[in-house]
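[job 4417] fold queue: 2 targets
>>> target A
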Amino acid sequence: MGLFDFFKKSNSERSSNSSIETQIVTAIEVFENNPKADWQGIINQIHKHLNNEDLAFDLYRFIPIAYCRQYLSDMNFPDIYLTADKDGEFTIEHKFSDNELFVMTEQIAKHRFADRTGQDKLMHILRHSSDFNAINQALNDGSQLDDLVILPPRFT
């Protein structure tokens, strides 16, 4: 969504998007301000601020992915993520680009990267990214960045 698309939206749509953007920024600040918190601590803090457990889980999943994709923008990340079916098999595909929350999170991450907002706290977010951690480990083990293939994340 570009700037002009924002002005085409109705007042209620703009208000809703503004509210979601505020919630995403609040969740980003939770990551930035809690450098030693584990995943449960981050989710609990996001939930405490937003009062929505499902949104807290989704933002915990999406924010590190969006930041990793900005930080390693030359990598070829898949546009899909997998969720489990009723039998526990990861067969259900979803597109990141079809998920409005992820798209908005990615836009905010891109904007914050462009104006360098929170750069000093970037690692507080990236350490929660399984892609970043896997890539970092592979590079530490001697792999070359060009040789790495990123698989779709799996969410339970």
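>>> target B
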Amino acid sequence: ENDVRTECKFDNPSINQPGANAAFRFSVFEKGIDIRNRDYKLFLGDKEIASGNTGTGSNTTANPNPSGVNTAKSGTYVLKVKDDDGNYQTSCTANLTVADVELTCTNNGKFHIEVGNPCVNNACSYEVKRTYKNSTTTIAGSSTTYLGSGPYNIDFDGYGSYVLYINGEATGCSVSISMNKPGFSCPTAPGVEIKKPVTFTLGSVTGCDENEDDCSYVIEGTSSYGSGYKSGALNSFTDNSVTATGKKSYTVSLTNESGTTSHDCEVDYNGGNAGTGKATCKAPDSVKVGQPNLKFNVSGMDPAPTNPTNIPLVCNLQTVVSPTCRPNGSCDVVNFQAPKTAGTYICDFKYNNADVCSTKPTIVVVAPVTCSISEERVPAGTQITFSGAANTNYGAQANSCGIKVNGNWLDGNQNQNVSSKTITPVVNTTTTYSFVCTQGQFEQISDAEKAAALTCSKQVIVY
């Protein structure tokens, strides 16, 4: 006859430990059934699990985990028996439930595996595979014949997705290691003469020196872009659309495989320090905040006043000194005090609304404290980098500084006593970070002005 139907069941249809005996038993020559000496195949889904010949006994078994190498899985098993025409026909089905291995994989600095329900009978061979940039490799030392009770700690081998395989099949137990999204801070708005090249030198760059690809960058709306960036200056650009003095923002973006970070960075455009006069004017270049007794010299004034005349030296719309200039083309050497706010000051010295100097006096007031932050707008839960440093050559006292968070000393410690410091907090709300020095050497400025000069703050906005 061509009837190959039979009855089947699992001796133990509910297995509490993976790898335990899961014998699939079916009738061969009993209960009016006769499928003696026929070839059979046992399937779970589309996968063939076991095969053999029914033999001549009353019943026989097909082992879903032959030799204990593979653990049986939950599901409906289908027995197919070859009929007289040589075709495999469904003979019977039986259900099996197998308890889960209960795997947990985490990153504790290594690929950490916890096994809640270990396999028995050496049923679970395992290995860890890493996939990165469409290439999958097995991690050296990550495999053994038997996945026992653990725990296991396996070294990571770079960025990528790490997945635990059991018996050659991927499990849901995985850990991903990815590089940090780029971080950087904008430079203090560089003072640039109109129609001249602009160069941005980014600060606190992170996530751009972690592999051979590094970061690509672009300054939107300009000719500045590139790849292989690690840190330092970006390619220069010239913005010929700028025709008036003032500040203009440019969107700077750094990108790596984990994402893109963008900030709007300012350029302070000025008319340059070229004057239309003939006199030689000399003022000190780099000075401290509020530094007194600075000398201003003028010679070769042409035209000169017919009578002694006081002419104001104006820096940032503020008159800092008014030397007396004489008919011989010279001006009295006078002392003056530097502005009390850090910055670059291109000063005007004019007589009858015309430049006196061939080169305008330029005074750079150097900040005694600097700071930077890697990102200015972030989602909650983002890790950022904040750094600060004391410029001891320009007023800040070494080892007198520390970091404040929202106006309070970090960890309540007022005596951090550092000259520079970097922190990498995770921010969940909008936060202001400050690098503050409590001691500094300045003359002729108020306590409030001194405190302002010795503080550098950056805010991170959480959206």
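[job 4417] complete. Note on B: The mean pLDDT is 90.
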